[in-house]
Specification:
Layout: H1 8-13, E1 21-24, E2 28-32, E3 42-46, H2 61-78, E4 83-87, E5 103-108, H3 124-139
Antiparallel strand pairs: 1-2, 2-3, 3-5, 4-5
Helix pairs in contact: 2-3
């Protein structure tokens, strides 16, 4: 299938839609998931357009994963998490709902299950506060 440049993440990358950004560079951007499955749920996207891992230019992965690692470390510290789950979905059968390659970074806590993806949006002030915690860690690293 062809990449659709009207998807919500492409629109965020172009600045057409707002996002609670925590990091960006020439290759990638990271921002808070609007429907988090846990505290600190962050998305990391390459700037390069691709639907998912299956059609992405292999040169995208090195810089993308470097940012994923940076965000994973920062979210673990920012939320005093016990661990971090990194997930990536490809095509509808695998759970992908937005067709721009992206990686989910979720701080994890012993004994706390992930919330289901219900479509329930988090309050903007909670997302803003969580984004600030991550940015503060990144600024000091």
């Amino acid at each position: 299938m062809k990449y659709d440049d009207t998807n919500i993440f492409a629109r965020i990358l172009r600045g057409e839609l707002p996002a609670h950004k925590v990091y960006e560079d020439d290759t990638a951007i990271a921002f808070m998931d609007l429907m988090p499955q846990g505290t600190g749920h962050t998305l990391v996207l390459p700037r390069a357009p691709s639907r998912n891992l299956l059609d992405a230019d292999p040169a995208t992965f090195g810089p993308l994963m470097a940012v994923v690692q940076k965000i994973a470390r920062a979210t673990k510290e920012a939320f005093a998490a016990d661990g971090v789950t990194v997930m990536q979905f490809n095509e509808p059968a695998a759970g992908q709902t937005v067709y721009h390659l992206h990686v989910h970074v979720l701080p994890r806590f012993e004994g706390v299950a992930l919330k289901p993806h219900t479509g329930q949006m988090e309050k903007p002030e909670v997302l803003a506060a969580n984004a600030e915690k991550i940015r503060a860690v990144l600024a000091n690293s």
